[in-house]
Amino acid sequence: MIFNLKIGFRALIFFASSYSLALTDLQYTFRVRLQEAQPIVNVELAFRADHSRRTVLQAPECAFSESKLSNQIRSVKLISGRHISCQVGQWIITHDPNQDIRLSYELVQDWPVQSYKRHRAYIQKNLIKFCAACALVTPVYFNPHMKITFQFAGLPHNWFSRSSFGDSRTHMYQGNPQALRNSFIIMGNTEQSRILNCAVGAQNIQVIINGKSEMPDAEIGEVIKKIVTCQRAFFNDHSFPFYTVLLVCVPPLDQTNSASWQSAGTCFHNAIDLFCTQNTPLSAFKKLCAHEFFHAWNGNKINSSFDEQNFWFSEGFTEYYALVTALRSGLFSFTDFIAMCHELCIAYYTSRVINAPNAKISKEFWQTDEINRLAYNRGFIFALLVNFLIKQQSKNNCSLDNLMKDLFAHTQKTGEKFSARLFNQLASKYISPGVLAQLEKYIERGETFEFIPELLGPHVSFRIGNLGVFDLGFDFEQLKSKCVITQLNQASNAYKAGLRNGQKVRGWSLCFDATKECIINLLDRDIRFFPQKPPFTQIPEYYLAQHADKKSAQAWWMS
């Protein structure tokens, strides 16, 4: 997931004249108070106002899927200036012309740590993290020549401080104004976190791991190193002056199911924030890293993240390249790659909102999980389609890779933001007459993609299958509490596979997904079945046949 924040308040314009603040135009000072029952971060903001007598600042209220972010802020104090009015989403300061302004507020954690709200401020005794979008009062607009300074004051000697701009006690930045709103701040106790240095070319990527994980630290570091090396080589872009990865590992959030795991991440400016429950499998972590790191380009450097209409691209194409770059970096076998492509195809074709128009996704992306996932899956299928069309028309001399590299080069050179119009314009170089018709049909109107047998390459087999809706066939709550089969439906696949009421169970593996096989461990044998029932939906099935030329099949994806 990438940073997203809507902006609509009056611009705050700063002038680049010299003044009393210490050679900086916008300065944040962070002071941590750990002695209290609930740790607090005191944030002080300093800048010089313009010649007007009224300045409007953007205050955190809504970002990502979070709302009421102002609940994290208390004790607002205007240190210099005439008056401050704190309204929802904006703070209004009255002042003298060109006055030095200083204000402070307290940032607190307003949620129970057991629930783990990733995008709200995380302020604990040994680790503190927050992003500017959700925690900092920021200018709506300012000149790119302005200098931004983060200062960390009074931290214990055994604490580290990291941000999107550095790893010392003072971090400075000058450049794209969006970097401030997309910045990430971390502070923590070095004795409670493990810090790895992953060498990628001439740069060390600092990986901070907080909490226990079943994945060894060495494997975590190796995954990050491989995916970053591959993706930077893909774009031939190594212009990252600094990079930090934070991985927070917590106990399983669902205490009733020890097999249940969760993972998520967010890409910020020169930083990645990752979250995993302790039992997250390594395969899921690999895909998570491949997805979030690719957002450094698709969403940040290829600027597409601020318009929900383009989430089919920023999330769907990133999903595509998460799998492709994980394959190319050696993190996935080709068999795993095909299986994951197949899973995403199934998720798309079985979605209950498959034909929702793009306008509905734009409106409800942050509100419902089904709409959210549709943007990912629809964009993924569209990326497969565009790749197929380019390879088909170029006789395998070009692929989607060429179009993505063109897009990156174009946006870096011109500063133009991503749009469907720009995508079609650049795609026309490889696909005649472009992809405008497909964009309108599949993305905007939400029509269902037709099945294409060779979508995953000429050496990958295809067939049409039927998939029913999820149906476990018995009472799961009784299984959890008493380890016994009850209320078994005799028409279910579970019954047909051999389960009977009253059978004692010693273990199980259930994914609550109609496409995933269930395994029930009885005292004397194992029962396997797919948890589904009518009505059935036709789905495309991609797989590697036993006689397949696997070397050629994989080579089709390597460039």
Textual characterization of the structure:
There is one protein chain. With 559 residues, the chain is an alpha+beta fold. Helices cover 28% and strands 27% of the residues. It contains 15 helices and 23 strands. 36% of the residues are buried.
What layout of secondary structure does this protein have?
Layout: E1 26-33, E2 40-48, E3 54-58, E4 73-80, E5 83-87, E6 90-94, E7 100-107, E8 122-123, E9 127-131, H1 132-135, E10 147-153, E11 159-163, E12 170-174, H2 178-181, E13 184-189, E14 193-200, E15 203-210, H3 217-235, E16 244-250, E17 263-268, E18 271-277, H4 282-294, H5 311-314, H6 316-328, H7 334-349, H8 358-364, H9 369-393, H10 400-414, H11 420-427, H12 436-444, E19 461-470, H13 476-482, H14 493-497, E20 505-509, E21 518-522, E22 526-529, E23 532-543, H15 550-555
Parallel strand pairs: 1-10, 15-16, 16-18
Antiparallel strand pairs: 1-2, 2-7, 3-6, 4-7, 5-6, 8-9, 9-13, 10-12, 11-13, 14-15, 17-18, 19-23, 20-21, 21-22
Helix pairs in contact: 3-4, 4-6, 6-7, 6-9, 7-9, 8-9
Q: In total, how many beta strands? A: 23
Average pLDDT works out at 91
Biggest β-sheet strands, sense, barrel: 6 strands, mixed
- Which parts are unreliable, with pLDDT below 50 for 5 consecutive residues or more? 2-23
Shape: globular
Class computed from helices, strands and strand pairing: alpha+beta
Question: Residue share in helices?
Answer: 25-40%
Rg over CA atoms, rounded to whole Å, is 26 Å
Strand order of the largest sheet: 4-7-2-1-10-12
Termini gap: 26 Å
The DSSP helix count reads 15
Strand percentage, roughly? 25-35%
